[in-house]
Amino acid sequence: MDWTQYLTPLTLGAWVTIELTIYSTVFGALLAFAAGIGKLAHNPLIRAISIGYIEIFRGTSLLVQLFWLYFALPVAGQAIGIDLRLPPVAAGVLALSLNIGAYGAEVVRGAIQSVSKDQYEAARALNFTPRKTLWRVALPQAIPEMMPPFGNLAIQNLKDTALVSLISLSDLAFRAEQLRNFTQDSTTIYTLALLMYFGLALVLTAMMKLLERFVGRWRAGAR
Amino acid sequence: MLFGIAWDTSSGWAFAVSILPILLIGMWVTIQATVLGFFIALAVGLVWAALKAAPLKIISWPAAVVTEFLRDTPLLIQLFFLYYVLPEFGITLPAFMTGALALGLQYSAYTSEVYRAGIEAVAKGQHEAARALNLSGGRTFTHIILPQAIPRIVPAMGNYLVSIMKDVPLLSVVTVLEMLNVARIIGDRTFNYLVPLSMVGALYLIMTLVASAGVRLLDNWLPKQGIPLK
Questions:
Q1: Cβ contact B70:B109 at 8 Å
Q2: Of A118, B53, B159, B209, which has the fewest beta carbons less than 10 angstroms from its beta carbon?
Q3: In chain B, how many domains are there?
Q4: What's the pLDDT tens digit per position in B35-88?
C-alpha cells in the first residue's frame, strides 16, 4: 500500500480528534471558571465541592478517570437502579473536560488572586456588588493572565484525546492502530500520525495566540 | 485469581480487601516505571538543554524542533511508535523498558525547559562577578550557577515526577501489568469494574498526595540562596 492511501482514513480520524478537542476544551473551560471561582467563594459548601473536584481530578490519572466513567459508572448505576451507560463519545468528552477543567480551575483561581487588592478596594468604594466586581473588574483583568497557561492546557488536551481510542472511539490514534493491524506498516503509519498531531498542535497554538491577543485588550491600561 | 492470589466475591468489602494485595503488586510496577521514566527524562532533558543552549544555530535549532515535536505529540502514539518501530530496526526491548523510554522521552522535552529556566533565573550579576574574579567558564557553571539553579529546578522536576506517575497507566496498552491494567483484568474476570477501578482511583490519589507532599518538603528543606556542591 502506498503511503498516500493512508491519508484518507487518517484524515477521517483527525476530524474526530479535532471535534473532541473543541468540545472538551470549551466544556473544560466552563468547568475551569466554575470551579476556579467556586474555590474562592465565601459559601463553604461551594468551596468544598470545588476543592474536592479539583483535587480528585488532578490527583488521579486521566486514563483511570476515563475507564471509571466508561466501565465502572454503569455498574454503579445498576446498583442504584439508574441507567448510567454512556456512549464512548460522551464518556470521552466528559472525562477529557473534567480532567482539563480541574487543571484550568487552578489557573483561573491563580489569575483572579493575582488581580491587585487595590482594584477590589476601589470597586467596593464605588459600591459595586460582589457579582459586578467579579464580572466588571476582576475577570477582565484576570483573563489575559490566564491565556498563556490555557494555551498549554489546550495542547495537553489535544494530546490527551488520543486516549479515547482505548474506549473504541475512531479518532486519529484509533485509525492509525487499525491501519497498522491491517497493513503491518508501522513506521509509515505512526510517522504520519505523529506529524498530523504535530500539525494540529501548531494550528491550535496559533489559534490560542490569536485569542491571547484578542483578550489582551482587557488588560488594565491597554487602551 | 491473579499473581497466585485468589479473590473473594462473597461481598463488596470482602472483594475489595481480597484484591488489594493484587493491586499493590500493580502499584509497585507503576512506581518502578515512574522512577525509571523520571531518570530517563532528567538525563535526556539535560542533553536537550545543553544542545539548545549551544551557540551554533545548526545544533540549537534542530534540538529545539525535536523537543517541540516531543512535547506536542501524544504519549500514546509515541509509545506505539517505539513499541512497533524499534523492533523493525533490530532493537527489541521488553514492553516495560519501551514504556519507560517513551515516558522519559516525552518528559525530557519538559525537563529541558526546566533546566534552561533554572539556569537563566540566576542573576546576571553572578556571571559578571565570576568573570571579575577571573573564574573559568567551567568553574563558573559548576561552582556559581549550578548551586543557585538547583533550588529552582528541584520543585519543578518534582511536579513532573507526579505527572509521569499519572501517565504510567498508558503503558497498559503495550501489555505492561501496572495498576490500572491489573484492575481491568480483575474487572474482566469478575464482571465487577466498579470496585477495582474505584480502588485504583483512591490509590492514585494517595500516591500523588504523598509524592506532592514529598516535593513540598524537599522544596522547604533546600536553602533558597543555593546549595554548595562541596
A1: yes
A2: A118
A3: 1
A4: 999 999 999 999 998 898 888 888 899 999 999 999 999 999 999 999 998 888
Contact A159 B73 (CB under 8 A): yes
pLDDT above 60 (res A222): no
Report if residue B120 sits inside a domain.
yes
Residue B198 belongs to a domain: yes
3-state secondary structure of A130: helix
Residue A39 lies in a domain: yes
Q: In chain A, how many domains are there?
A: 1
Is there a contact between B154 and B218 (Cβ–Cβ < 8 Å)? yes
Residue B5 lies in a domain: no
B221 in Cβ contact with B161 (< 8 Å): no
Q: Give yes or no for a contact between A119 and A46, defined as CB atoms under 8 angstroms apart.
A: no
- For residue A201 the three cell numbers come to 498542535
Domain that holds residue A67: 4-218
Residues belonging to chain A = 223
Using alpha carbons only, give the angle B166, B168, B172 rounded to the nearest 5 degrees: 135
* B65 touching A (Cβ < 8 Å): no
pTM (2 d.p.): 0.88
- B/e letters for A143-165, b = 16+ CB within 10 Å, e = fewer, are bbbbbebbbebbbbbbbbbbbbb
- Which CATH number characterizes residue B79's domain? 1.10.3720.10
Which chain A residues touch B if contact means CB-CB below 8 Å? Answer: 55-56, 58-65, 67-68, 71-72, 75-76, 79, 155, 158-163, 165-166, 173, 176-177, 180, 186-187, 190-191, 193-194, 197-198, 201-202, 205
A223 part of a folded domain: no
